[in-house]
Write a structure and sequence with these properties.
The complex is a heterodimer of chains A (about 230) and B (about 270). With about 230 residues, chain A is mainly alpha-helical. Chain A contains 7 helices and no strands. Chain A has a single domain (about 10-235), classed as Up-down Bundle (Methane Monooxygenase Hydroxylase, Chain G, domain 1), CATH 1.20.58. The longest helix of chain A has about 35 residues, at about 10-45. Chain B has a 6-stranded mixed beta sheet, with helices on both faces. Classes of the chains: A mainly alpha (about 230), B alpha/beta (about 270).
Chain lengths: ~230, ~270
Amino acid sequence: MATSSGHTIKAFDEDLDRLRALISEMGGLAEHAIRESMRCLVNHDLDGAAKIVEEDKKLDALEIETEKRAVQLIALRAPMATDLRDVVAALKISSVVERIGDYAKNIAKRVPLLADRDIEPLSLMPEMAKIATQMVHDVLNAFVERDAETALKVIERDKAVDDFYNSIFRTLLTYMMENPNNIGQSAHLLFIAKNVERVGDHATNIAEMVYYAATGQHIMDRPKGDDDMMVETV
Amino acid sequence: MIDTIVPSPTETAEPAVVDGPPKMSARSVGVFYGEKQALKDVSVDIHDDKVTAFIGPSGCGKSTFLRCLNRMNDTIAGARVTGDIDLDGEDIYASKMDVVQLRARVGMVFQKPNPFPKSIYENVAYGPRIHGLAASKGELDGVVESSLRRAGLWEEVSDRLQESGTALSGGQQQRLCIARAIAVDPEVILMDEPCSALDPIATAKIEELIHELRGRYAIAIVTHNMQQAARVSQRTAFFHLGEMVEYGRTKDIFTNPVQQRTQDYITGRYG
């Protein structure tokens, strides 16, 4: 349900706006980190990769800041209904976004281990990451705008990320079978692909939180692409 | 608390609340003070095992409605009540209804504690005595003690029952008024902002008491304090401009109300 106007107590609105701004800021950093990790991966940029690892601390600090502010807001303002759902969503989203940052960091840490530029699935990776980061971007905008429709559309896009992952998985498997010398590098790439795939899943989770915050209803059934992949793995 | 949730036809629809037969049932109730209509078309049920809270801004009609439930509005000159209010299926506005008897069955606790200027004992004993609920002094002593115990006051006053009720603290006075209300063994207790004159600790004691009394009496409470409504009630009705805007499970009203007006009020956006 949309809110018709601001609170009688203006400082309440400011507190809520500040919370949303923190989430946006975290989202911006996480998107940047994933995008950078892909650039460093493709260009084998070791300095850039080290910087991503270093900058992840900022996200950790912002998560703590968000938690502090959310707890304060609950204690001092006693938010109700849509406000309460927003605050709880902000709290949960911040920890998920922090997690997305960790995936970027994990990818960055693998960059030095991937000197071989010739592994073909590498070229698919940035494309997959582009979809996943765009999902994060859109879903966090949806949170700020309280836009349940956009959140639903983000969920639909997770299928594309999963398809990419399945495709990369199969290709890497073939690589490993063809030449055992490829196994080390391929395994790292597989983890990277999995990390990006998880980013898409987390964007989907955030979308569910946004949907609940905006509407008060839970999304009961959402499309899942993971299951068929598991069958193929065995 | 057992709720029956009717499965909704679509997943996005609100699940409806279905309770058992109500203790009191109001249908299309309207109240006029002279020409002025203070309450329009209010239909609400009060249940035996639930606390029902009436919330809303000042002048919304919530206290007016509460006062309809034991015909307290009869005492106001020019007040006229329309619609139906039943207690156990019996029309309380029927001509054969004994109003004194009705008010024994539907007791009331007011905003400002108003003990009689008599002893603590007499405050509680008065009702049972005039209603002939105790045959002997011993029996009356028993009623006084059990009422004070149920009101959570016995431990604090058992050794000074002959002291004046007005000498107690505000919170104790309010619990004395609750003891007085339950001494006549009512079925419903109406509370009109029972804590608004009390400090937070006395308020917490009253809220704990409401929690303990639930199950024994049907309770309806008017409160300006939304947190209080959220804490003590299982059903909440939101009133605005003489209408009942929304009625539902308290947990739904405070997390996901259906009506925009309810939402604006409980989130602090009203006015």
